Hints:
The structure holds 2 protein chains of 2 kinds. By secondary structure, chain A is α+β, with helices and mostly antiparallel strands. Helix content of chain A is 40%, strand content 20%. Chain A is elongated. Chain B has a domain at 5-42: Glu-tRNAGln amidotransferase C subunit, N-terminal domain (Histone, subunit A, Orthogonal Bundle). Chain B has 3 helices and 2 strands, in the order ααβαβ. The A-B interface holds A 20-22, 27-29, 35-38, 40-42, 45, 47, 53-57, 59, 76, 78, 83, 85, 87, 100, 134, 136, 138-145, 268, 271, 273, 276-278, 280-284 and B 10, 13-14, 16, 53-70, 73, 76-77, 80, 82, 84-86, 91-98.
Amino acid sequence: MSREDYEVVMGLEIHAELSTKTKIFCSCPTDFGGEPNTHCCPVCMAMPGALPVLNEKVVEYAVKAGLAMNCEIAENCKNDRKNYFYPDLPKSYQISQFDKPLCNHGYVEIDTKDGKKKIRILRIHIEEDAGKLNHDEYGRGSFVDLNRAGVPLIEIVSEPDIRGPEEADAYFKKIKSILEYIEVSDCKMQEGSLRADVNVSVRKKGDPKLGTRTEMKNMNSFRAIQNAVNYEAQRQIEVIESGGKVEQETLRWDELQGKTFSMRDKEDAQDYRYFPEPDLGMIHISKEYIENVKKTLPELPESRKKRYIEEYKLPEYDANILTSSKYFSNLFEGAVEKCGSAKAVSNWIMSDITGYLNENEIEPEKIPFTAENLAELITLIDKGTISSSIAKKVLPEMFEGEEKSPREIIEKNGWVQISDEGAIKEVVAKVLEANPQSIIDYKAGKDRALGFLVGQAMKETKGKANPGMLNKMFLEELNK
Amino acid sequence: MNISRDEIIHISKLARLNLTGEEIEKYTKDLEDIIGFANTINGVDTENIDESITATEQSNVFRKDEVKEFDDKEALLSNAPSMEGRNVPPSKCFIIGR
Lengths: 480, 98
Ligand SMILES: [Zn+2]
């Protein structure tokens, strides 16, 4: 049997750091960076007698995420202690939620090659992050930094509805995009503010029973998830094909070696002895509270996509890409509002801007110019101030230069298009005089000669002549 | 209430305790007594009584999302096992042995 005879079944547990100003149970700042152990207090350092108090924004943001992912919001929920010993966890327990999470039973929709698909969400709960350990390469011990300890997280747990690495990728990207739209998390994957635990199992196609799953923790890049799942699925299939049994265990993905490794301490890994957190009370969420949070929800990607197709008559493919990121979508809407040309804005984002981002491996959130800047560029082309070939030279300047206004960039570089009739006439005359053979060729019926002449005139003006006017004037002269 | 030896061994492992054979015997018996005593609460009639989940009656005790820096940061690190940094100037990480 081969890979094609198996189905890969996956579930994702996504951890997203919430972008609150302070930690979940104390008033320490959550800013990234900062000298080790300076964003700390007796609560997040677990000094005896220190008591946690829940940050109200954490509840609000988690409810917001729940609503955006079509969850039921629990009327009553509570916090629980998850007990385990690890040096990055100073209390030796993590305050999390066990049997009564804040949000239950939601879903998000992803696009697959067979159309739309719902991925169900089992639950979303709130919890605190752990600190950071840097292991000393000389074996002297581990360096402990508790600045991240107590930073609020939500954990979004999917049902095992995901089939294969492509769907996992689409799902992870959809969750990231929603969290960005509703502005509850920065989703900076490099800083670890968005990461996923990935469960993988395989089963023969048509088998109703799920296979034994393995879990890979703390994956924080789209590529790593793809590679890890591909590797792990293949490994499990080989184990089964050779008559073995897949062991339920936690694995570590090594991106450099492209392999998964067993993390060994699996025997008591799952026994966290949860119990209700005695230092915190219940959380009651009223219908009124939910309604108020609902009012703060921005328009979500699915609805924007529909609107782009209906209102702006964009193809679904374009609408998909434009709404895949809040940053694209806001750039698009902002620029359309200013210049009025949805198709032109969409084309610029889809081709030149995306091309630049891909080539330079830049994320959409790092686009350094505003929607107004982009609108101005398009207006300048529409008005004939610059040709589209000059505009393609302006865009990299907008990415790289100090000056972000296309008008200023064009003026500074002397790129204004020549649309002055007298000036164009002069160039045409000059080019005709220098190329008598082309005139003979054109009169002999070789249309290509016209293109050559226009090209020469563009060269003469360093691409600044208005090509439409050039064409027209050459024709007038040649047909005299 | 029956507590098995294996259960005690498992719990002691979770608590990172190394128990001697004698201690395992003793704690098996002790824990049986403790759980047995706690179980007397199961005899209470809880018909018509709402479930209570937390120890406190209070609910929705929240804090505003406003930064307040703790000012005695040196004190926080004063009982760290070691502060010998690998960096110059020394980093504010503390070290735990392996
Ligand atoms: Zn703190």
